[in-house]
Specification:
Helices cover 33% and strands 21% of the residues. By secondary structure, the chain is α/β, with parallel strands linked by helices.
Length: 676
């Protein structure tokens, strides 16, 4: 078990190994940040660096350092790590690159990384190939470059895999208080999940932002999510990159639907980690989480003094799934009293400018729209450029927003439609009063949507993907037989080489399929609605195969679904529900979860499909048997759970959904042979 990370991230004394400009920067910036502990430079030549006496050897230090920045080449880094570990040091930042992240260019990198890990033992290390960290709470850093962090008493922790992105985020002028900025590098030993877990132990951390390139240690992420819920600390992610599954050549429709980011999305949603798609939205969501925390819902109110702004707000919110509940009778009465008869009362609200500069009247009007059913009340205010305009005329808006927050205790945000029209000084004033300043309308809406979706579902532990396997494709008949054993309903069927003989004891109409094709429709190996033996025989003659599957034709379908599972090496087993049939990829109506998923989660996922309207019964047409559909999905999931060590892919497409049944009329399984 690794030593606790707290010594590394909250040190009393630090060491800096190396003599280059990077190490000089670390020394100066640690001193300039106001670090009150000991700073010990280490270099064989001794002397003085940044006005601080230099030790010639690590062994000469007065005590084992809590945290050490190692700014020397990769081979020497391994030697230094071994000495620090033997001393009982608290941890180290490995600045050097050329380890496993460079294996494509230098095959020795993997071996050097193994040596590094062996040298570290149970001593935690960040990196290699990372800048280190900034602890702005305690005025402490191991950081070799410029940064924009300032001392704070409370704030968010941001963890990135990219040092450059970390620098850029530190330079934000959005009044977001950053408590910790930590770069993870290639995470040879200490993962993002572990570092974030340590952040949860600091009560001064209000939210955690994670810039994620890829996942490892799924159990660690599950533990992090559970602890974050227990501590009440929101987790937000900026996920980039693609899983290795996206590049794998697969034969099913499911793989094309669930490839790429589907597994990452499903994992983040399962863990209750909100996902953002841009750096500005990421920062705004962290700011909202810092000031307010998770929002109870995506239902908000919007107030502006322009009909154009009100319309823009309503239109842009559609893309983020944000709702504007109609005003209730009590809200309309209070607003009418505050605004008079000339204002149309609606949400979003254009309150006009009749009451501008009257802080008391503005407070009264804005407070009138506050309601317990609304998760956040937003007030659109764009402050003029202070360099060429007089911004004092907008102080009334700042004061009114602060007054509304104080009087109602409700969640209040002031939103600038353009990011540059929210001055940092104003934003800081608002945050001090418990009001969220949001910079940019689209960024604000993305942040609101994220903070309104932070609640994860209670689930059993993820089914881990296991190792690579040599999978073979089963015949359709065999795939259906196996799935039927777990409760999936399949058509009455027979398989063999004589189609005319197979039709005996089956009820027409029938479907004839040629076996041995990955995509039978494209190969002309499917014949539908065969009403007699002669039609069966003729259809068989037109197929380029001598192996057939003959089965009852399912009629009366309300809709067709795809239910599939792929083994995703990065995220587990991805269960995909989608509009089925031959146009599955074209329709792109899909949702993905991870196995195992609860009945509640399966039902919720099903309702998110556009095709769900058909399943419920559209325009007085009969609906499908929803319980039967859910039973079919669960049967497929149960099969995967029972055969996880072998399964690579499972697909049922289509699952024909009728008013009384859910029948798998086509099935595919790829899995490794059983070890008898």
């Amino acid at each position: 078990m690794k030593r606790d990370l707290s010594s590394l991230l909250q040190p009393r004394h630090i060491a800096v190994i190396g003599g280059g400009a990077w190490c000089e920067q670390v020394l100066r910036r640690a001193r300039d940040m106001g670090f009150g502990g000991d700073i010990w430079p280490v270099h064989p030549r001794g002397g003085v660096r940044a006005g601080i006496p230099v030790y010639s050897r690590l062994e000469d230090l007065p005590a084992p350092p809590d945290a050490t920045f190692i700014g020397i080449n990769r081979h020497a880094t391994i030697e230094a790590i071994a000495v620090l570990n033997a001393m009982g040091a608290g941890g180290a930042v490995c600045f050097a690159s050329g380890f496993s992240e460079a294996s494509a260019e230098d095959s020795s990198g993997v071996g050097l990384q193994a040596q590094l890990l062996n040298a570290a033992g149970d001593m935690p290390i960040l990196g290699p190939n990372c800048y280190g960290f900034i602890n702005a709470l305690d005025g402490m850093l191991l950081w070799p470059d410029q940064h924009g962090c300032k001392r704070v008493e409370k704030g968010v922790a941001i963890l990135t895999q990219s040092s450059n992105i970390a620098i850029n985020l530190s330079m934000q002028t959005r009044a977001l208080p950053i408590a910790y900025l930590i770069t993870c590098g290639n995470m040879a030993q200490t993962s993002q999940a572990e570092i974030a877990n340590a952040m949860l132990d600091d009560p001064r951390v209000s939210a955690i932002g994670l810039h994620i390139e890829g996942f490892s240690d799924l159990r660690g992420w599950e533990a992090l999510a559970a602890k974050a819920v227990e501590k009440g600390v929101p987790l937000l992610a900026l996920k980039v990159g693609r899983s290795s599954q996206a590049q794998a050549a697969t034969i099913s429709h499911t793989a094309s639907l669930a490839g790429g980011d589907a597994g990452a999305n499903a994992l983040l949603e399962r863990l209750g980690i909100a996902r953002l798609n841009s750096l500005p939205a990421f920062l705004e969501a962290l700011k909202l989480a810092h000031v307010i925390g998770p929002l109870a819902s995506n239902r908000i109110a919007s107030i502006s003094c322009s009909g154009g702004e009100a319309s823009l707000m309503a239109d842009m919110a559609l893309a983020h799934g944000i709702e504007f509940p109609p005003l209730g009778a009590h809200q309309k009465t209070a607003l009418a009293d505050a605004l008079g008869p000339m204002v149309a009362l609606a949400n979003p609200l254009d309150y006009h400018t009749y009451i501008w500069r009257d802080t008391k009247a503005m407070t009264r009007a804005w407070a009138a729209i506050v309601d317990p059913a609304i998760a956040l009340t937003t007030i659109i205010v764009d402050y003029p450029r202070a360099d060429i305009c007089d911004a004092s005329d907008w102080q009334c808006a700042t004061d009114a927003a602060i007054n509304v927050r104080a009087q109602t205790g409700a969640n209040i945000a002031v939103v600038a439609s353009l990011p540059e029209l929210m001055p940092e000084a104003i934003a800081q004033e608002l945050i001090s009063a418990g009001v969220v300043p949001l910079s940019g309308l689209d960024e604000a809406l993305a942040a609101i949507a994220a903070c309104g979706s932070l609640a994860g579902e209670a689930n059993d532990p993820l089914l881990l993907p296991g190792g690579e396997r040599e999978a073979i494709m089963l015949s359709e008949a065999e795939a259906k037989s196996r799935l039927a054993q777990f409760g999936l309903e399949v058509p009455a069927k027979k398989s063999g080489t004589n189609p005319a003989h197979l039709s005996k004891d089956l009820t027409f109409p029938l479907v004839l399929k040629g076996q041995g094709f990955a995509h039978k429709t494209e190969a002309g190996a499917v014949a539908l609605n065969l009403s007699n033996v002669q039609e069966v025989t003729q259809a068989a003659a037109n197929m380029d195969t001598d192996s057939f599957l003959l089965e009852e034709m399912i009629t009366g379908g309300v809709a067709e679904l795809l239910v599939g599972v792929t083994r995703d090496p990065a995220h587990g087993f991805v269960l995909t529900l989608a509009a089925g049939g031959t146009l599955t990829e074209l329709l792109e109506d899909k949702v993905s979860l991870l196995i195992p998923s609860t009945p509640k989660a399966l039902k919720k996922a099903l309702t998110r499909l556009k095709i769900y309207k058909l399943l419920r019964g559209f325009r007085n047409a009969p609906g499908a048997d929803i319980p039967a559909i859910l039973d079919a999905i669960d049967a497929i999931q149960t099969y995967v759970l029972a055969n996880a060590e072998r399964v690579e892919e499972v697909e049922v497409n289509p699952l024909i959904c009728t008013p009384s049944r859910a029948v798998a009329v086509d099935a595919l399984i790829r899995e490794a042979p059983a070890n008898d």
